[in-house]
Amino acid sequence: MNWGWKITLTFILFAGFILIMVISMLNSKVDLVSETYYQKEIAYQKQIESLKNANDLPTKNLLIFNPGTALLELQLPEEMLGKNVEGEVLFFRPSQKLLDFKVPLKVDKSGKQQFSLEGKVPGFWKAQLSFNYLGKSYFVEKELMLP
Fold it and tell me: SS3 sequence, the chain?
C-alpha cells in the first residue's frame, strides 16, 4: 500500500469517527434544570428575600442529613413550634428531572420532620425547603450526596 492510500484511509477513518460522534451527540437526551427557567428568573428577587429571611433565623442549620441512614431531618426554630407553618421540600436531582419529587411539611409538636431517601437513585441531590411563617417566606437549600 502506498502513501496515497494510507492518507486517504486515515481521512476516511477520521470522517467516520466524527460522523459517529455527531450522531451520538444528536441522540443523547439533555434535561433542562427547569422548563420554566425564564419565569423563575423573573421571580428571583422574591427568592433572594426568602434566602435572607432564612439567614436571619436564629437556627442556621434547619436541614440535617445523615448519609449513613439516608435520612434528612428538618428542625424548625423554637419560636415556630406549634405555629402554622406551611411549605414543602423539593428533592431535586439536577441531572434527571423525572426523579424530582415534593413532600409537604408535616412537622410534629417538637418542630421536626424526617424524610427517608432510602431506595432513591444514588448521586447528587438538592433538598429545597420553602415555607411561610407569619406572612414571611423562607427558603433553605441543602446539597446531598446519596450513597
Answer: CCHHHHHHHHHHHHHHHHHHHHHHHHHCCCCCCCCCHHHHHHCHHHHHHHHHHHHCCCCCCCEEEECCCCEEEEECCHHHCCCCCEEEEEEECCCCHHHCEEEECCCCCCCEEEEECCCCCCEEEEEEEEEEECCEEEEEEEEEEEC
